[in-house]
Structures are given as C-alpha cells and as structure tokens.
Amino acid sequence: MSRSPRFLAAFEQGAIPLEGPILIIRPTEFAGLAELGEPVLEQGFAPLHRRFETGGFSVIPRAEGRFETVLVQLTRAKAENLANIARACQMSEGMVVVDGAKNLGIESLLKAVRQITEVQVISKSHGKAFWFEAVAMPEAWLLAAEMAKNKAGFFTAPGMFSHEKVDGGSAFLAPYLTGLSGRVADLGAGWGWLAAQALSAEVSEISLFEGEHIALEAAKLNITDPRAQFIWADVPELPKSSPYDTIISNPPFHQGRAATPELGVGFIAAAAKMLQPKGRFLMVANRHLPYEAPLDAHFRNWEMKAQNGGFKVFEASLPKR
Ligand SMILES: C[S@@+](CC[C@H](N)C(=O)[O-])C[C@H]1O[C@@H](n2cnc3c(N)ncnc32)[C@H](O)[C@@H]1O
Fold first, then answer.
1. Are 194 and 186 in contact (CB under 8 A)?
2. Same domain, 92 and 164
3. Is residue 245 part of a domain?
4. Which domain holds residue 266?
C-alpha cells in the first residue's frame, strides 16, 4: 500500500481536476497538500494556522466564496463534520471530497451522504475517502453546528471544548477566583465561561487568549463587557511580557485523541512569562496530570489549593525568568 495520503488517491481515482481553486477544510498535516497546486486552507486552530502559513500556504480561519473542488478533512465532532460537508457543497462548483479515519466517524458520514447522492469511495490507511458532485445537503446539517445557547446560557457550538455544559475542572476552579483585581488573563479561554466568572468589579481588564477561532467568536457573544479583550493565539508561543496581575487557566491536555500533558506545560511556561513579578497564577488540571515539576521549573512558589476525585487547583507566584 502506498503511503501517499488518502485524499490524493481519491483525486487520482476520481480524476478530479487540479486546475481550479481547491479549498481544504481543517487540514492538519502537510503531506500531499502541495500536490493539489496552491490550495486555500481553512484552519481556525491558531497553532496549525501558523504552521501552514509559515509553510507558505494561504490559510484563512473561515472560508467563503466559490471553489472548483472542496476537500473536507474530519475533526472529532460529528456535527462539525456534517456542517463542513454541507458548507463544502455550497462552496464547490464541482466535486466534494471527504477524507477521514475510521475513528473519526468516516463510515457514518459516508452512510449519511449516500442517502442523499451517489458517491465513490476508496479505503486506505484505516480510513476512507469518498467523493461526489456537490449537491444541496440538509439544512439541519448546517443548523446543528450553529452557535446556540447551552445549559449554562452561553453560546457554543459542537467541536468546542465542553460545548454542552460547563467543564467540571473550570467549575472546580471558579470558587478560587477571589480577590481578583487589575489586569487578568485567561489562557485557553474557550467560549468564555471561566473568564466570565473572573470579572469582579475590581478587574480593570480581562484578556481571553484562545487558539480556536470559532470558540473565541462564541466568547465574544458571551462576554460583552467592555473590559474584555479577545486574542486569537497559540498560547505557548506568546511573546514574553509581564503585564498581568492574575492569570487563570484550565489548560488543554488533549491533541486529537491523545493525552498530551506537554500542552499544559507550555501554558504554565507562558503564564510565568506573562505575569507581573508579584502576580498570581491560578490553574486547574486533571488530577492525574504531572504539572508539579513544571510549576517548580517556572515559579518560585506554588501550592495545591484543593483537589477532588477528578481535579486539582494550583496557585503559583513569583515567576522565574
Ligand atoms: C480545557 S479547555 C478550557 C476552556 C475554557 N477555559 C473552559 O473552561 O471551558 C482548553 C482550551 O484551550 C484551547 N487551546 C488548545 N490549544 C491551544 C493553544 N495552543 N493556544 C491557545 N488555546 C489553545 C482549546 O481550544 C480549549 O478551548
């Protein structure tokens, strides 16, 4: 079996033209992209967006307009995938290609599309790619991925972290957000619930740093307070600065399906870079994640304020520079 990406085999077998403009929704890897000429990439996750941009690709957080062919690469959220297929059909003047691994649910998407139109399929590398001529897809596929208020009364959409309800870790951290004043930052702010809990009267400014463009758009709807600023960024790559009196965070610990505690370590290091010398860093983490050594490495002082069956809350101060 050849090691070239599945979608290239689909373009080849389907004799899908490479001349016209091609849009790729949610690519994560470089492999095979250059073979599609000069595709436009839709990637709203800041770290990947930056990687592709640095690699010389034209990248946008959210695409609009018309393309000859649209390739959809799957995320973990089924509703987001269905909506992306429907959007691909709206934007394509020719073919739509859908590419994904079995564990991202390609089978069920194939079944859903097959009920609407005729498709061609190849199976390769623990997944499938299928392609079809763009047709109108059910309105419900678009609506299901639109922002809507969740149980907590906050706007969210499928695909965002804990979009249906407040995350248990954030809820555990919230009571410790006391005595906040001056400039506050939330690293990995998602759709903004934690930042909203931090907005006491004494806070002069709150900066929400978030990597997912769409989550930040939700946060803008959820926090309309003029003291809030919204910054789309790859947190571990933020430049060194020290303006914040308090930094709060419920850092990410998953990339795709894999648990990656190093992500949280990057957030701890960023907090140390961005905190006033006399500032405080308050974070929550899943209990099993080993953040004690990185806290030691980046702060002179830290303590575990609380723990329960699932989470632990840390407070750190005196950042090491
Ligand atoms: C555990 S969630 C917490 C979200 C939010 N604070 C809450 O309590 O619901 C971590 C957040 O970090 C974001 N994230 C992941 N990697 C990131 C990165 N490199 N830079 C910025 N944000 C990132 C995720 O999109 C997610 O919204």
1. yes
2. no
3. yes
4. 148-319
Residue bearing the CA closest to ligand 1, atom 2: 252
For residue 308, CA distances in Å to 110, 130, 165, 169, 313 come to: 42, 46, 19, 10, 9
Task: Determine the Cα angle at 256 with ends 251 and 261, to 5°.
Answer: 40
Tell me, yes or no, whether 1 lies in a domain.
no
pTM above 0.90, yes or no: yes
Which of 95, 121, 144 is where one domain is finished?
144
List pLDDT tens digits, range 30-52.
999 999 999 999 999 999 999 99
159 ligand 1 Cβ < 6 A: no
Q: How far apart are CA 285 and CA 29, in angstroms?
A: 29
Ligand 1 pocket residue status of 52, Cβ below 6 Å: no
- Give the count of domains, the chain: 2
Does residue 137 sit in the same domain as residue 203?
no
Each residue's pLDDT tens digit, 68-118 = 999 999 999 999 999 999 999 999 999 999 999 999 999 999 999 999 999
Taking a C-beta distance cutoff of 8 angstroms, is the pair 252, 284 a contact?
Answer: no
